[in-house]
Design brief:
single chain, about 250 residues, mainly alpha, about 65% helix
Length: about 250
């Protein structure tokens, strides 16, 4: 049996690459000049295939995972982060702390919304849910000039929402209310919708207070599951339309 290595993961990804998707993904993920993912490079591997490859290499040593997370190729990083999440979810308490620290050291590789949305709830948020003394890190992320750290902040609260705790989602949503980027508008609206899926009254209380100042994209995401009459009510409170990009 060959020794587990980043090279073996990279070889499998290379064999799974689709030239048509390699041409499409850079447009979808806005990698051109001025795009939110400017300069990112894609092989053209689908997410399901990346997840299958990650499962086959779920025990990859961290020093090899590090090579994937530092790669310029998007699929290398995505697969590496999926492996990291898989290891975190199987680890004991000491292992989870080590993997959380490792993840924090490699945030620079988490530079697109699909990477953030894969890791933030299942690893960063899950760890902070278990260690509330470290939750202030989320507020540091929310104040970061780095777009992806701000998205990490709100997306990590998905772990709290699933546990029935909406406190940090609502506080961070308020903090990010006037963020300039639509990738934050979408993420905040999505998390507010998840709150509403579990407790509609809590979401409506937030909206009654803030709908008039929420970016239109954020509000649309937040009220997507509302009955038509309630959607119409909140949209009449919304400011003028805004928004750019995917995610």
């Amino acid at each position: 049996m060959s020794t587990p290595s980043a090279k073996s993961v990279q070889d499998e990804l290379a064999r799974a690459a689709d030239p048509e998707k390699a041409a499409f993904f850079p447009k979808f993920f806005k990698t051109g000049p001025g795009g939110y993912a400017e300069g990112d490079v894609f092989l053209g591997v689908t997410v399901p295939e990346q997840r299958r490859i990650a499962r086959r290499h779920k025990n990859l040593p961290l020093e090899q995972v590090r090579e994937l997370l530092r790669s310029k190729l998007h699929e290398h990083r995505f697969t590496g982060f999926v492996i990291l999440v898989e290891q975190f979810e199987r680890a004991d308490e000491a292992g989870r702390e080590r993997l959380f620290t490792f993840c924090r050291e490699h945030l620079a590789g988490m530079n697109n919304w699909d990477l953030v949305d894969t890791v933030a709830p299942r690893l960063i948020g899950a760890y902070l849910l278990e260690h509330p003394e470290h939750v202030p890190q989320l507020y540091d992320f929310a104040r970061s000039p780095v777009l992806w750290e701000r998205r990490i902040a709100i997306m990590a609260t998905f772990a709290f929402i699933r546990a029935g705790d909406f406190t940090h989602t609502l506080k961070l949503a308020e903090l990010l209310l006037h963020d300039e980027h639509d990738l934050i508008h979408k993420a905040v609206g999505w998390m507010l919708r998840e709150v509403g899926n579990r407790n509609m009254a809590t979401e409506e209380t937030f909206l009654d207070r803030h709908a008039g100042e929420m970016p239109r994209t954020m509000l649309r995401y937040a009220i997507e599951k509302f009955p038509p009459a309630r959607r119409k009510h909140y949209m009449t409170l919304s400011p003028s339309p805004s928004g750019r990009g995917s995610g």
